[in-house]
Amino acid sequence: MTKYRMGGVAAAALAAWTLAAGAQAAGPKAEVMHWWTSSSESAAVRKFADAYRAAGGVWVDTAIAGADQAKAVAINRIVGGNPPTAAQFNTTKQFSDLIDQGSLNNVDDVAVRDKWDQLLPGPMLDVIKVKGHYYALPVNIHMSTWIWYSKAAFKKAGINKEPATPDELFAALDKLKAAGLIGLAHGGQAWQENILFQAMLANVGGKELYLQVLRDRNPKALNSEAFKQVLVAFKRLQSYVDAGSPNRNWNDATAMLISGKAGVQIMGDWAKGEFSAARQSAGKDFGCIAGLGPQVPYLIQGDAFVFPKTANADAVKAQKLLATTLLAPAAQLEFSKLKGSLPVRSDIDVSTMDACAQAGMAAMKDKARQVGMIEVYITPDQNGALQDVLTAFWNTRMPVEKAQKSIAAALLQD
C-alpha cells in the first residue's frame, strides 16, 4: 500500500466532512435540564441518558443543583427564547403558568400511541393533561409520607409488632421514648413539617377528609372536629423529637435510624438511598409502612419533564424521542432502582426491586388509594401560606383552634 501525507487543506476538508457526516448521522439532540446532582440521583439519570442514546439520540446533560434554582433557570430560559429541549419540574401545579402562557409543546401523538391514559396514575394525568393535551412526561412516583423504622430500636424498646394504626404508632413512639431512645427523627424545617402534616391528614383523617381539605378546600371540612384532631395528632408528634431537631437535614435524621439512636422517621421514599448507602436492607435492618391501614391514601408525587415551545423540527423530534424512551419499561425500572422511586407505569414487574418498592406498587394497584400529594391540589402560594402556619404551630404554643382558623384562611385565599 502506498503511504502518503495528506496536505493541510485536504485534511481540514476531510475533518469538516467527517464532522458534518457525524452530525447528520447522529439522532435528535436533546438538552435535558434537571436537578439530580447527588451521587444516587446522578447514577439514576444516567440510565435515562443511556436509554436515549441507545435509541439514537444525543443527550446533553444540564444539571443544576437545587430544585428551585433549576426551575428558575428553566423558566428564565424559556421566557428569554433560549429554552432547553426538556426541563424537570415536579408533577404538580408548578408548570401550570407555562401551559396557560402557551410556552410548552404537547406530546399528544406519543401519549395516545403509548396509551398514557391507561398506564399512568389518575392524579398525574390530572396535572399533565390540560384541555385534552399532554404537556409533560411523568417519569417516576415518589411518596413523601412513608413511615420508616429501625428494627434495632424497635427491638430495644420491646416493640414486637409493626404499627398498623395511628394509635399503635403513638404507642410505639411512647415505648421508644421510655427506652431512652429518640422516638421521631425529624429535621425541623418547614417542608419537613409539611410532610408530617400530610402524613397525619392521610393516616388520621383518611382519604375523604384529605381531599375535602386540600382538593376541595371545603370550609366545613377545614373547620370540622375531624380536622382539628388531625392537627392535634400533628402537634403530638413534636413531643417525640429531640432538642437537636431544628434545622436538621432530612438525611441526618435518617442517619439516626441507621445508627439505632431513633426509632421512626416520616419521610419520602428517597430515604431508601441513605439506608442503601449504609448497606442496610429493607425488612432486615429497617421497616417501611406506606399507610397505617389498608385504606390510607397513597400520596402520589414525582418528577416530570416539560417540553418548551419550539418550532424547530429537530428539537420537536428530540422531545418526542424523550417522551418515548424515558417511559420505556426497562428505562423506568433501572432508573427507579437507583432513585428510590416507583416506576410511573402500572404494567412494570417490580419483583426485582426492594421490599418497600414492592409494598408501594401493591398499594398503587388499588386505584382507590391513589391520591395526589399536597401540591397537586393547591398553588405554590397557598402551600407557602399553609407551611407558614404549620411551622408556627409546630414551634410555638399556638392554640390548635387558632392554627385551624389560620390554615382555613391560607387555603381559602385565591
Automatic annotation (TrEMBL):
UniProt signal peptide: 1-25
Compartments (UniProt record): Periplasm
Q: Which UniProt keywords apply?
A: Signal, Transport
Report the superkingdom from the record.
Bacteria
Role description: Part of a binding-protein-dependent transport system for a sugar.
PANTHER family listed in its UniProt record: ARABINOSE-BINDING PROTEIN-RELATED, BINDING PROTEIN COMPONENT OF ABC SUGAR TRANSPORTER-RELATED
Name the family the entry cites: Belongs to the bacterial solute-binding protein 1 family.
What name does the UniProt record give this protein?
Probable sugar-binding periplasmic protein
User: Could you tell me which species this protein originates from?
Assistant: Pseudoduganella danionis
**Taxonomic path:** Bacteria, Pseudomonadati, Pseudomonadota, Betaproteobacteria, Burkholderiales
